Amino acid sequence: MQTSLFTFTGKAANMIGYYRDGKHYFRSMPASVRQTAATKRAALRFGAASKKGRLVRSAFADALDIPYDGSHINRLNRLLIKAGREDNAALAGFRFNQRTGTDRFFYSEPTLSEDGILHIPAQELPQFKGITAFEVKVIAARISFGERRVVRTDTAMITLDTREAFAGAALDVDVPGKGTLVVTLQVRGMNGNAPSNNRKYLAADIIAVKEPETAQVFHRPSHGQQAALQERLHAILDASTQKQAQQGQRSQANHPRHVIQRE
Predict the structure, then answer these.
(1) Tell me: the pLDDT tens digits for 17-33?
(2) Which superkingdom, per the lineage (predicted)?
(3) Phi and psi of 80, rounded to 5°?
(4) What parts of the chain have a pLDDT lower than 70?
(5) CA 152 to chain centre
């Protein structure tokens, strides 16, 4: 434990200072750290997932209106480590508030169509004591994971009176640009014009991930390739014709004609 008047955290010479349970401690740095091939691979996976998770969090940080729970960073990193570098679809379903999901407010879940329209089906809205409306906010972020940057973010918002019949809604959330489209749905329970402070009525989930479409390219053969293909085709046809002729000759040899002589 640190007992001097001036305490510190972090590195100082060959010592590391740290803070725990209201007290300052220090320990000496190890002389060397040995890593096996497996631990090196694990470290690389963790580093890649951590950078990717930081990018996802930064894409929605300014637009989200709910407080994060204390575990969301570690939960997101674990999800990305398990999914691997290329599986961005695994982000769908992640909850920024672990305690409450958007399925608490919508029995029929919203869906993202191919043209970038978020459809919320018509349904009966649940009733909660002290909640008179749902503030629904859609946040769409175009993220280039290859370039490690957020290309663009856009939002759309509607308020649903829980005392009235809900006939459904459609929100345009397609954000043009290069990269993966990640869509988060946020719902806040409202009492009049004020949002609830109860985490049970605050949700924000990643509900859709849409990868950029890659057009399939077909190459037309060149003039020289066309000539070679035609010669090959003629050779195949000639060989087929010769084979049929040979089969016909063998058939005649095996089944000779019967000649009827008249007296």
Answers:
(1) 877 777 878 787 776 66
(2) Bacteria
(3) -75, -35
(4) 5, 31-33, 214-263
(5) 16
